[in-house]
């Protein structure tokens, strides 16, 4: 009897076959390329494993600062800063068109080399001043 697709996938995972290529580990963002596709959320992936999503409908403004090498975004009072290199024009334009699906912090400085056209050094989230006020202590 032939092996079912799911059985083959599970077997490959156990053996380590089919793992993502090394270049996927050095990818720091994903922009949708197919015509007509847009994202509803921008997912931020931190090196410690935390994932956070912000709705594009809450995006108030964003800016690119070439001297600082960062993109600042405001989502409903939260200031998000994406710092790195190779962010303009692809990531900036992708955000403008709601086509950036996710942005990932680099795991270590050794990923910042000429072989990678981009590198995300750090992602920070600064909540609004009143965020968390009135919570029980």
List the helices and strands and how they pair.
Blueprint: H1 5-15, H2 22-25, E1 29-31, E2 41-45, E3 51-55, E4 59-65, E5 70-75, E6 78-85, H3 90-96, E7 100-104, E8 119-126
Parallel strand pairs: 2-7
Antiparallel strand pairs: 1-7, 2-3, 4-5, 5-6, 6-8
Task: Report a brief summary of the structure.
The chain is of the alpha+beta class and about 140 residues long. It is built from 3 helices and 8 strands.
Provide the descriptors you would attach to this structure in a database record.
4-stranded antiparallel beta sheet; 16% helix; 4-stranded mixed beta sheet; 137 residues; alpha+beta; single chain
Q: Can you describe what's shown?
A:
The protein has three helices and eight strands, in the order ααββββββαββ. It is α+β, with helices and mostly antiparallel strands. It has one domain. The strands form two sheets. It has a four-stranded mixed sheet, covered by helices on one side. A four-stranded antiparallel sheet has the order 4-5-6-8, with no helix packed on it. It starts with a helix and ends in an 11-residue tail after the last strand. 15% of the residues are buried. Mean pLDDT is 85; it is low at 16-23.
């Amino acid at each position: 009897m032939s092996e079912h697709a799911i059985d083959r996938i599970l077997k490959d995972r156990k053996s380590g076959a089919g793992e993502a290529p090394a270049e996927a580990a050095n990818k720091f963002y994903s922009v949708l390329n197919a015509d007509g596709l847009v994202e509803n959320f921008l997912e931020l992936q931190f090196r410690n494993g935390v994932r956070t999503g912000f709705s594009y409908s809450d995006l108030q403004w964003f800016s690119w600062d070439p001297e600082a090498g960062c993109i600042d975004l405001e989502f409903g009072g939260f200031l998000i800063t994406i710092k790195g290199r190779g962010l303009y024009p692809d990531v900036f334009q992708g955000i403008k068109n709601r086509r950036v699906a996710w942005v990932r912090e680099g795991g270590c400085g050794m990923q910042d080399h000429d072989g990678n056209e981009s590198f995300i050094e750090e992602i920070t989230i600064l909540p609004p001043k009143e965020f968390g006020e009135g919570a029980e202590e």
